[in-house]
Specification:
- By secondary structure, this protein is an alpha/beta fold.
- The protein contains 16 helices and 15 strands.
- The strands form four sheets. The chain has an eight-stranded parallel barrel with strand order 2-3-4-5-6-8-11-12, surrounded by five helices. Strands 7-9-10 form a three-stranded mixed beta sheet, with helices on one face. Strands 1-15 form a two-stranded antiparallel sheet.
- Helix 8 (about 150-165) runs parallel beside helix 10 (about 200-225), helix 9 (about 180-190) packs antiparallel against helix 10 and helix 14 (about 360-375) runs parallel beside helix 15.
- The longest helix is centred in the middle third of the chain and has 25 residues, at about 200-225.
- It is an enzyme of class 3 (hydrolase).
- It catalyses: Hydrolysis of terminal, non-reducing beta-D-glucosyl residues with release of beta-D-glucose.
- InterPro entries: GH, GH_1_N_CS, Glyco_hydro_1, Glyco_hydro_1_AS, Glyco_hydro_1_beta-glucosidase.
- Its EC number is 3.2.1.21.
């Protein structure tokens, strides 16, 4: 069902001015761009192992070189400055800083991030550091990975090392990026690293990611200045029913619990939702949640990072299972434990190269819901963007009008949500660069900057120039 409210922000036709101080940035992730997979003490992460396993990643691609950001970071910072970005959201590679996931930090790894942050600050670009964007040290996975409590404890120790090294330079921190993907795609459906397919392990991983987040927040707070900002980034699913039936409404409830409330409940309210326990009771009794865990998980945050690309449409199913159409990758194993009677449906209309529906109204609705559920928690769009089949023309130009239209529509949705009361403080375009797109390898291009992979040459796309003007003026032009 599509309501009038859902339709309102989808077709911008006039200029819109964003609030003064609205933060404009772009984002990347370490394994997707850095390369230098075995340099200066870095050891394999679960994504190195996964990508090197035949059949896991399209074309056998790996992040061994990626966009070679490890060596070309200064060029990339200069590009950010040229585009007028006010902030850059990047992630730290855990195995580059703490190769075994234990013990002291490797100074060469920290030095890379010190150079990067210093370069950003020299260009008046605010660094926004994410501690974990999926590259768990392989040695910790060999010891059990996120399904084990010890991994959460190691994560807090790693957070402390990062804060001690960079806390004098970085004032904005994010603990986890999209823990839903880490747990349910990594341990449930197996379409992300480490590629395990155990529904109970996925639920255990979700809890220990929650615990790791809470312990990391405490470690950061203990070491950072009082004015530092600490957050988490969630890929909140905007879930809609296919029809108005009671069965479809219950399907929405089930997926909302597994996709969203499994994290927002403990992190933001201090409790898991009871319906999640009931839905998964045949799989686990949740005894891995120990006394005191929720107190550790429920930590004050300065803002909530929101990643949004497309809505999710579900209905009641007959039990045969149609989870492979949920947009997260095909697998014989579901990333939705306890939801076998839920079917997923492709939303109507235009799609991106990922096959994801282009629907800015989902972002508007999501922001309004989060504002209602957590009225005192500011929001930042930490990822939003689209993959299209970009190419450089004979003149060396990359024109991507579909991406401009996508971003314009979603920024219009953000603007309308702000007008309607949502406290949204910033927007980070995904992604700064074309890069290694996980199991899709290098076949999908999300970047505002085109990367010629054989040479590493960077070419700002038309969308990059367009976005730079929006960031410079704070004004979203009409269609």
């Amino acid at each position: 069902m599509v309501t009038a409210a859902q339709q309102s922000p989808s077709a911008p036709d006039a200029a819109r001015t964003f609030p003064r101080g609205f933060l404009w940035g772009s984002a990347t992730a370490s394994y997707q761009i850095e390369g230098a997979a075995a340099e200066d003490g870095r050891t394999p992460s679960i994504w190195d192992t996964y990508a090197r396993t035949p059949g896991r990643v399209r074309n056998g691609d790996t992040g061994d070189v990626a966009t070679d950001h490890y060596h070309r970071w200064s060029e990339d910072v200069a590009l950010m400055a040229e585009l007028g970005l006010g902030a850059y959201r990047f992630s730290l590679a855990w195995p580059r800083i703490q190769p075994t996931g234990r013990g002291p930090a490797v100074q060469k790894g920290l030095d890379f991030y010190r150079r990067l942050v210093d370069g950003l600050l020299e260009k008046n670009i605010q660094p926004v550091a994410t501690l974990y964007h999926w590259d768990l040290p392989q040695e910790l996975e060999d010891a059990g990975g996120w399904p084990e409590r010890a991994t959460a404890e190691r994560f807090a120790e790693y957070a402390a090392l990062a804060a001690d090294a960079l806390g004098d330079r970085v004032k904005t921190w994010t603990t986890l990026n999209e823990p839903w993907c880490s747990s349910f795609l990594g341990y449930g459906s197996g379409v992300h690293a480490p590629g395990r397919t155990d529904p109970v392990a996925a639920l255990r991983a979700a809890h220990h990611l929650n615990l790791g987040h809470g312990l990391a927040v405490q470690a950061l707070r203990d070491r950072l200045r009082a004015d530092a900002q600490v957050s988490v980034t969630l890929n909140i699913h905007h879930v809609r029913p296919l029809t108005a039936s009671d069965g479809d409404a219950d399907a929405v409830r089930r997926i909302d619990a597994l996709a969203n409330r499994v994290f927002t409940g403990p992190m933001l309210k201090g409790a898991y939702p009871e319906d999640l326990f009931k839905d998964t009771a045949e799989l686990t009794d949740w005894s891995f949640v120990q006394d005191g865990d929720l107190r550790h998980i429920h930590q004050p945050l300065d803002f909530l990072g929101v990643n949004y690309y497309s809505p999710t449409v579900v209905s009641e199913a007959d039990g045969s299972g149609t989870h492979t159409s949920d947009g997260h990758g095909n697998s014989a194993h579901s990333p939705w434990p306890g939801a076998d009677r839920v079917a997923f449906h492709q939303p109507p209309g235009e799609t991106t190269a990922m096959g994801w529906a282009v629907d800015p109204s989902g972002l508007y609705d999501l922001l309004r819901r989060l504002s209602a559920d957590f009225p005192r928690l500011p929001l930042v769009i930490t990822e939003n963007g689209a993959a299209f089949d970009d190419y450089a023309d004979p003149a060396g130009q990359v024109n991507d009008p579909a991406r401009i239209a996508y971003v314009r529509g979603h920024l219009a949705a953000v603007h309308q949500a702000i007008l309607d009361g949502a406290d949204v403080r910033g927007y980070f375009l995904w992604s700064l660069l074309d890069n290694f797109e996980w199991a899709h390898g290098y076949s999908k291009r999300f970047g505002a900057v085109y990367v010629d992979y054989p040479t590493g040459t960077r070419i700002p796309k038309a969308s990059a120039r367009w976005y730079a003007e929006v960031a410079r003026t704070g004004v979203l032009p009409g269609a």
